[in-house]
Amino acid sequence: MTRQPPEAAGSGGLVVRDLTVRYGRAITVLRQVDLEVPQGSVVALMGVNGAGKTTLARAVTGMLPFHSGTVVEGDISWHGQSLLGRKPGQIVRAGVSQTLEGRRIFAELTVDQNLGVGGISKRNDQTLKDRRDWVLELFPKLRERLEQRAGYLSGGEQQMLAVGRALMQSPQLLVLDEPSLGLAPIIVDQIRETILTIRDAGTSVLLIEQNAMMALAVSDHGYILSHGSVTRHAPSRELLDDPDIQSFYLGLDEAAGEHAPAGDGTPA
Ligand code: ATP
């Protein structure tokens, strides 16, 4: 059973309709995916390895052509305007920023320089300064390490820097690809809190996560992607309370054991 997200379809924000994506000529990775991120919300996209989560992020942010991927059907609209065919820079200027899976920061540059690169598309110095102040308030650890080379930061700090750099663009929508990957639980908690702060400051978040517990705890609505198709979507609270989801994705019952998520990503 599926349900509409909190706000009605087409009310603004990001709307993905009937999206089919292929790599090269033959590998179809997404099949007729429908997904919405209403303005002001956090939406989680979950699924096991290879389900197609990153591919969806690439489609939204205009990165598919760099991976020989193409949209063969469907549309992605942002506040009613199609994003298809737009270049990544144009999509950033339209208000959509992302952090990439694997925390791609510039390791040779300092923390401050990395933030500066994030704000490069903003012309107004005062806006940039205010933004930088806000990012450093959000991540006090980065303020302590402003002059340090980013490559020497811990994994958690690099993730904060990646998020901070994306926030320098003052996005209306932030696409976060696996922010909790490989991080200690205490850092994951901090990231969760940060996502809520970002949302409260007016930026919607599309959160791509394998860590379903974290994703559902922080999001308003959740989508489950399996083999390139959305097999379920519902308010996150409902998914958290669902025994099938609990056993399959959250590893809370014995049948799923410690190794969940497993199988093909479709709850029984
Ligand atoms: P993970 O959680 O492991 O990052 P994911 O859900 O984000 O997985 P994708 O990275 O979108 O999944 O990959 C979906 C499928 O597409 C996988 O089978 C992957 O091997 C394939 N794929 C990804 N990029 C390419 C590419 N450039 N060319 C061909 N196949 C690709």
Q: What's the short story on this structure?
A:
The strands form 2 sheets. A 6-stranded mixed beta sheet has the order 6-7-8-3-9-10, with helices on both faces. It is an alpha/beta fold and 268 residues long.
Account of the protein in words:
The protein has helices at about 55-60, 90-95, 110-120, 125-140, 140-145, 155-165, 185-200, 210-220, 235-240, 245-250, and strands at about 15-25, 25-35, 40-45, 70-80, 80, 95-100, 175, 205-210, 220-225, 230-235. The chain starts with 13 loop residues before the first strand and ends in a 19-residue tail after the last helix. The chain is built from ten helices and ten strands. The protein has a six-stranded mixed sheet with strand order 6-7-8-3-9-10, sandwiched between helices. Strands 2-1-4-5 form a four-stranded antiparallel sheet, with helices on one face. With about 270 residues, the chain is α/β, with parallel strands linked by helices. It binds adenosine-5'-triphosphate. Adenosine-5'-triphosphate binds near residues 23, 50, 53, 54 and 67.
Blueprint of the fold:
Blueprint: E1 14-23, E2 27-37, E3 42-46, H1 53-61, E4 69-78, E5 81-82, H2 88-93, E6 96-99, H3 111-118, H4 125-138, H5 140-144, H6 155-167, E7 173-177, H7 185-200, E8 204-209, H8 212-218, E9 221-226, E10 229-235, H9 236-241, H10 243-249
Parallel strand pairs: 3-8, 3-9, 6-7, 7-8
Antiparallel strand pairs: 1-2, 1-4, 4-5, 9-10
Helix pairs in contact: 3-6, 7-8
The structure holds adenosine-5'-triphosphate (ATP).
